[in-house]
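A.,

Following up on our hallway conversation. Structure tokens first:
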């Protein structure tokens, strides 16, 4: 059965993620892959935006995909359709003010461990949510053992864009992600932050800018440039202050990781973020 309370808690989170994913679709490609799609709610939302010709949900758990197939009409009703009681396969549905015809034509799901069942050219963009940074890095940068050549999966599929929303927004975890992406020639193009259910969620849009390693950009460099009136500015300031205080306390008890130290050095050099 669908946990409606849990779905409600996550709907804003997923809406923000789908918005980030659809904003630059025209420039960066027409196909997107949602890795670890679980019941498929984000993949459905992405298909409903109409921004991509092809949306593919990947999930390693067959049970999750089966449950998603059973529950999809309830989930679509709760997450996308406020005014309808049910949705049948191939129905025309509404997402906001936009009608999306025959959603099933541009939406598919595959039972896949990471990107293993994705071919080159099928993933202009990749979306990763609901997992930790280490898992994200393992999925994107593991060597492609089932295909020719010792190439990282993100390179093999020819991805141009990555959207990531880690479950843990601690600075050192984000720094590891940004470092890994820079090694593959990706830089952050957009950052967004939310505070939901007593947790911060940072969504990042990475764009392929080079075929070789590029300059590392630390987490928050885009958020620091937001105008004061932006609703995310206050949330980001609270995030920064909380983690600065927490890391300073941690530093008194144990040696901070190099990633945490780099982030603190960056924050302390930002006039708008210094206490």
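Then the amino acids I'd put at each of the 275 positions:
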């Amino acid at each position: 059965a669908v946990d409606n309370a849990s779905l409600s808690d996550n709907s804003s989170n997923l809406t923000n993620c789908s918005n980030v994913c659809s904003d630059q679709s025209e420039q960066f490609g027409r196909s997107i892959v949602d890795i670890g799609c679980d019941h498929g709610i984000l993949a459905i939302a992405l298909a409903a935006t109409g921004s991509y010709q092809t949306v593919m949900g990947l999930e390693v758990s067959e049970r999750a995909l089966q449950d998603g197939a059973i529950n999809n009409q309830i989930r679509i009703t709760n997450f996308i359709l406020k005014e309808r009681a049910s949705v049948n396969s191939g129905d025309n549905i509404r997402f906001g003010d936009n009608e999306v015809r025959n959603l099933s034509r541009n939406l598919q799901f595959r039972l896949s461990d990471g990107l293993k069942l994705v071919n080159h050219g099928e993933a202009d963009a990749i979306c990763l949510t609901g997992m930790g940074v280490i898992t994200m890095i393992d999925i994107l940068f593991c060597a492609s053992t089932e295909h020719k050549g010792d190439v990282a999966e993100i390179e093999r599929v020819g991805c141009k864009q990555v959207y990531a929303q880690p479950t843990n927004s601690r600075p050192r975890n984000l720094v590891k992600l940004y470092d890994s992406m820079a090694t593959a020639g990706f830089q952050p193009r957009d950052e967004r932050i939310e505070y939901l259910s007593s947790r911060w969620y940072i969504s990042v849009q990475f764009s392929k800018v080079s075929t070789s390693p590029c300059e590392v950009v630390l987490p928050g460099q885009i958020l620091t440039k937001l105008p004061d009136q932006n609703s995310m500015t206050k949330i980001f300031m609270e995030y920064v202050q909380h983690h600065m205080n927490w890391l300073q306390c941690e530093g008194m008890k144990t040696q901070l990781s190099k990633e945490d130290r780099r982030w603190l050095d960056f924050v302390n050099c930002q006039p708008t973020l210094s206490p």
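The beta strands are 31-35, 54-59, 93-95, 98-100, 107-111, 125-129, 161-165, 186-196, 199-208. Curious whether your intuition agrees with the design.

B.
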